[in-house]
Design brief:
Layout: H1 21-28, H2 31-40, E1 42-45, H3 51-66, E2 73-74, E3 84-88, H4 95-103, H5 106-114, E4 119-129, E5 137-140, E6 148-149, E7 153-159, E8 169-172, E9 214-216, E10 224-227, E11 233-235, E12 244-252, E13 257-258, H6 272-275, E14 289-291
Antiparallel strand pairs: 1-10, 2-3, 3-4, 4-12, 4-14, 5-11, 6-13, 7-10, 7-12, 8-9, 8-11
Helix pairs in contact: 1-5, 3-4
Bound molecules: 2-oxoglutaric acid.
Length: 295
């Protein structure tokens, strides 16, 4: 992702927000869900997208899979019977993603979960595991890979296919309260971000999973999970009869500040440090404010 090449974001679509946006957001993320998000750092959101919104997102995902961006990476081994592909920062070129981001209640739900007045887009991330993918997604936090400080943040993980319990995203409840843990490359475990020894290493969560508060939900299309960028999470393999096409989109709240790094973040925002000082709010065209809607 480069600030030099990214086009200016499209303004919210005409007719946005729809009259029912705030009501839908308060229904899917009612006070009990918001409280659970604050306490656990992860919640399930049943029926977040309606069938028309889901179809639009599916079109966006299929378009992305047919034409991955130059930023796409293969996250499975060559001998994996399936295939795990990720892509980043595609929304400026993908109308299905744009519609999903600006024309659904996502931003309004984000503001509620974060207990923030405003919600601005951070970035999008596609994660698809094709049938039979053996590759697990290892336990990790997201924020140590990023260029932001602050607590008011949320990521949505939105599958367009049914996801079984053993293939879904799992969370260690409460881990969003910290500490920050060492980010490593998923397949070769290299420390490419924070220098070796500068953050604590991850505990062996799998070895202790029976006594840990692990959350995870089987999901139907239209459902999603929402999680804090410090919540430890991981995902399982997928069965041979299932695709697992997922769109993840991440939002920032009022307290988030720019934290430029001396290394390349994941995803990268090349050149941003020249345009947005350290400690500044993320007030930049790459991160359009989406809630509350402009007057
Ligand atoms: O989809 C996956 O397998 C992992 C998702 C993930 O780590 C994320 O969205 O941050």
């Amino acid at each position: 992702m480069s600030t030099a090449t990214a086009p200016l974001p499209a303004p919210p679509h005409p007719g946005w927000p729809r009259a029912d946006t705030a009501v839908r957001a308060a229904t899917v993320a009612d006070d009990a869900v918001v409280e659970a998000y604050q306490r656990d750092g992860a919640v399930v959101l049943r029926g977040l997208l309606n069938p028309a919104e889901l179809n639009r997102l599916r079109e966006g995902l299929d378009e992305n899979l047919a034409r991955p961006s130059p930023r796409a990476i293969v996250a499975s081994q060559p001998d994996d019977p399936g295939f795990f592909i990720e892509d980043f920062g595609c929304w400026p070129d993908n109308a299905g993603y744009r519609d999903t981001i600006v024309s659904t209640p996502l931003a309004a739900v984000a503001a509620r979960l974060m207990r923030s007045h405003g919600a601005r887009l951070y970035h999008d991330h596609m994660l698809t595991k094709e049938p039979g993918t053996r590759q697990k997604t290892p336990w990790h936090q997201d924020q140590p890979y990023y260029n932001i400080d602050g607590l008011q943040n949320v990521s949505f993980w939105i599958p367009v296919d049914p996801v079984r319990r053993h293939s879904t995203l799992e969370f260690l409840a409460g881990s969003h309260r910290g500490p920050w843990l060492m980010p490593r490359t998923f397949m070769t475990h290299q420390a490419r971000w924070f220098p070796e020894g500068s953050l604590a290493e991850l505990p062996d969560i799998e070895a202790e999973r029976d006594r840990l508060p692990i959350l995870g939900w089987a999901l139907e299309p239209g459902d999603a999970v929402a999680f804090h960028m410090l919540t430890l999470h991981a995902a399982g393999p997928v069965d041979g009869d299932r695709r697992r096409r997922v769109f993840s989109v991440r939002f920032l709240g009022d307290d988030i500040r720019h934290a430029p790094r001396s290394w390349r973040t994941s995803p990268p925002f090349d050149g941003l440090a020249d345009e947005l000082p350290a400690g500044a709010p993320m007030d930049h065209p790459l991160f359009p404010p989406l809630w509350p809607p402009a007057a």
